[in-house]
Backbone:
């Protein structure tokens, strides 16, 4: 396998992971709003959902940076 093919495969995989994490993040945000507005559970449960949402946001940011670096590497390899 050539380096360019490896970079392309990793880029496709990371883009798919970002898409999945984004939708999980959206669902968690909606859940946090529902819990906060309707007040179904105690404050601790809302705090837990907020923490998990923050973790997913962090993972999205890390994957975004990784994708940007892979794009730079892909452009460098193509030259």
Residues:
């Amino acid at each position: 396998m050539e380096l360019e093919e490896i970079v392309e495969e990793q880029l496709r995989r990371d883009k798919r992971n970002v898409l999945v994490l984004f939708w999980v993040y959206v669902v968690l945000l909606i859940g946090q709003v529902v819990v906060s507005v309707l007040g179904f559970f105690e404050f601790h449960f809302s705090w837990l959902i907020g923490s998990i949402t923050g973790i997913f946001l962090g993972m999205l940011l890390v994957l975004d940076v990784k994708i940007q670096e892979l794009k730079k590497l892909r452009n460098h390899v193509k030259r």
User: Anything to note?
Assistant: The chain has a mean pLDDT of 82. Residues 3-38 form the longest helix (36 residues). The chain is about 90% helix and 0% strand.
